User: Fold this.
Amino acid sequence: MLVLLLGALALPPLAPLWAQAGAPSRIRAETLARDLEYLSSDALRGRNTFSPGFDSAALYIARRLREAGLKPLGDGGGFYQYYSVLEEEVDTAGAYLEIEGRRFPFGTGFVLLSFAGELGGDLPAAYVGHGWIVRDRGIDPYEGVGLHGKLAVVEGPLAPPAGLGIQRIGRVFPGAVSPLWAARERGAVGLLVLPDSASLGNWDRLANSNLTRFELDPPVPSAYAAAPLGALLLSPEAASALMAGEAPRGGVPFELVKKVRVKIPLSAKRVHRGYNVVAMLEGSDPVLRAEYVTVESHLDGAVGRTPLDGDSIYNAADDNASGSAVTLAIAEEMAAAGPSRRSVIFIWDSGEERGLWGTRWFVHRPPVPLDRIVAHFNVDMVGASRAPGSPDSPTPTVTGPDEVYLIGPGVLSRRLDSLVVAVNRSHLDLKLNRAYDRQESEFFYPRTDAGPFLERGIPTVGFFTGLHDRYHRPSDEARYLDPHKMERIARTVLAIVRAVADWDERPRIEQLPPTVARYR
Ligand SMILES: [Zn+2]
Assistant:
């Protein structure tokens, strides 16, 4: 199959692209181990976005970039690219619904399925059934009702109703539009959700959930954007008061006769400043240097609040001190070995674990024209190994000592894929596992930093060694990882990045799967 494919594509000879294959590499397991140790040390407390630990990690990376002679590509000539995040908090004591003079306070009359900022007024409402749009099956419950400035009344739960056959990949529902987004597109200002037994079973938990919202300011569209509308799950009493005297519930949308008084006030509003670390190696080719290859690892970690097994520090070693160290090693080696033909941009982003903030901001305000970025590499969790005797030896999702998940090119581009395969084979010949190089995989889209690039039409290539039971736990510590495997991955990614950056051809997405949302 592969031989046929290569023949049919008539790939140009690839040999000259990695003339440096035999050159000594300065990428060393010892350096990777040291960087991994520091970035995941208890002192940095998991590098949460907006924390002193993240600042220390960013400073560590920026110092090394300066020493290696990379060009700062952040704001004001520095290495940091800043973004703002707006935090809003509900004033639960002041939040209520009023229906025909009867007041339903937060906590007993309703809880929040999503919160999207302040909401208030005497608002008209329209009933739209389950609220899901499935275009290719002609399902659009909004036809015939105006929603502009209104509340949309939908049947709970907000999850896709059984029987509509809606597929789910992470936060994406291919071919379908969820009620939050569909109602917002039609101009609605909020959702009133009629209770179902499953949602009511979660009432107590929901009474303490969705009370705070963090979102980029201004927001940047993505599958990982925060909910665009507030959704209020009504108590059975509030729901009966709302629907009393109205048309019967069922398939047909209608406008309610009564208006609803809503008040969702804020108790706090804060602006936080986050940042990415961004640097560039300028290309050598007078023409191609105006094209860019990006290599990215998120530097932030997922920091939980609850101690587990007596450990309260979420070190985030594999996720993603490992990738951050590997991307740093690649940047340093490329700076020392000399430029590629195209320019290469290195990004250590923040806010990945909170909603891909840094990456969404990068594609919104790229330091170079976005249409000049020809390929994006995402290095996220690359330290685990299923080697015999290692802590992950019994974990089937973790790759072997000479194996890595390759994600993206198999779906997106046969030409780029062939190049990646050929370069890998002529170097360390790692086993490229394709289990997630499928459009149905949420690791392909939208769960990683590759997502926002893919949503803007840029080919993406991801490297990943697999999920284990330390993921997002305090036990994600450096001692369980394999720096020698990280070295092999760093050398392999470097060789592939260089080959793409030197390629005569510009990589192109041959076919973007319908599962990927498109944003400008
Ligand atoms: Zn990660």
Observations:
- The chain has two domains: 25-85+272-502, 92-264.
- The chain has 14 helices and 22 strands.
- The radius of gyration is 25 Å.
